[in-house]
Amino acid sequence: MDQDLKIQLGKQGVFTTTLEEVYNWGRKSSVWPLTFGLACCAIEMIATTMARYDLARFGAEVFRPSPRQADLIIVSGTVTKKMAPQIVRLYNQMPEPKYVIAMGACAISGGPFRDGYNVLKGIDRYIPVDVHIPGCPPRPEALIYGFMELQRRIQQQELTGVRAPSFTVPSEPSEFHIPAFGQHGLEPAMNASIAPRPQLVQITPAPAEKATS
Amino acid sequence: MSALDINAILQAMQTAVPGAQITLLENPSPSAQHSLLLPAEHAIALARFLRDEPTLRFDFCSNATGVDWPDTEITEKIKTKTLVDGVEKEVEETRKTLRPGYLEAVYHLFSMELKHGPLVIRMRTADRAANVSLPSMTAVWRSTDFQEREIFDLFGIVFTGHHDLRRLLMWEEFTDHPMRKDYAPPAEDDGTERPVVEVAAAEGSVAE
Fold first, then answer.
1. Of A33, A36, A168, B120, which has the fewest CB atoms closer than 10 Å, so is most exposed?
2. How far is the C-alpha of A56 from the C-alpha of A52, rounded, in Å?
3. What pTM was computed for the model?
4. CB A14 within 8 A of CB A24
């Protein structure tokens, strides 16, 4: 709908909207996260839901104890290789539309424990992440900002047409491969269909200037 | 906390269990926390003595951990006096010896009753590959149960007599021992999948 016309009509006391807008507004205002925490980031997440920061203002106060009732999984903390298959399994059990927030350096990349033998180098190796929140751990304000960013994304989702999100397309996968415990690590080490392969960057330095002495 | 005379403890242990070869391992650092190396075959009897002896009463094992000692080459410089052309000269000689590697289990003992400690005892395996068995201390100190499982998991020391020796932290299918010094993480995990910034050396611009 034309925005100018909408504003003009609004000035005349006529409220106009689209079905998509109302639908997305409803979805973004009741994102129910999964009761799920992994490490120190989870403490910050709990603080965010409590009275001082009050995530309930954004309609996300109802942490669901079952993945079947959850819309959002906040991966809050270090993902060990032993825990990673369970997280993918929880994600697979969530109904569409579902969203993932990777909270903190560990969930993004392994963080300070990246070189550990037991730490997964980022949860986006196995499930698609919508919002990454840096920090170690991120403050509750950062989580709220990341949550608002997710809300903006939900509000902007088009439900029809070529730019429709994957959950409206039946052929798109909503479940991802659960890695298996191998003899030396998780097998496979990453889901190549969603984890982007890093590129080799080659930098050719400019020829060094002749020293003027 | 009264200071422990580790030499007296060693003497008492030696008289209690005759034939046990106990070695005093000196700690040259300022902490001077010396430890006792127990022979594996007498370790249980010695541990029971440390726990039950009324003057020692080490009734609490606060910590058990492992140490990996890989094969190391030890270079020593030895000064010898030799006669060169009738004149006595001091010649410095370097000698290299290969010390075969072993695995070590370390236990920190305290006495709750007499309020003293810590006493550090160690046990060593014969090597790092085939003979990695040590007696389990779970019969003497119950608190070593999970800690010995952790040592088994991360270092690969097999504790004979342990009632439930399974991996504690890693999964059952895992075959490596990650805290060993020669542990290499799997290839896909070695960090090479990070974006690599390679600086190609342009010709004629080699920094000096």
1. A168
2. 11
3. 0.80
4. no
CB contact under 8 A, A201 and B193: no
Q: What is the ipTM of this complex?
A: 0.73
**Lowest-pLDDT range, B26-35, B41-50, B191-200?**
B191-200
Q: Which of residues 173-192 of B touch A (CB under 8 A)?
A: 173-176, 178, 183, 185-186, 188-189, 191
Residue that is written with structure tokens 């003992």 in the block: B109
Q: What is the pLDDT of residue B201?
A: 53
Q: Please indicate if any CB of chain A lies within 8 Å of the CB of B208.
A: no
A 95-124 residues with CB < 8 A to B: 114-115, 117-118, 121
Residue A85, preceding peptide bond in cis (omega within 30° of 0): no
Classify strands B87-99 and B72-84 as parallel, antiparallel or unpaired. antiparallel
Residues B122, B6 contacting (CB under 8 angstroms):
no
Using a CB-CB cut-off of 8 Å, the residues of chain A touching B170 are 82, 118
Distance CA B52, CA B140 (A): 10
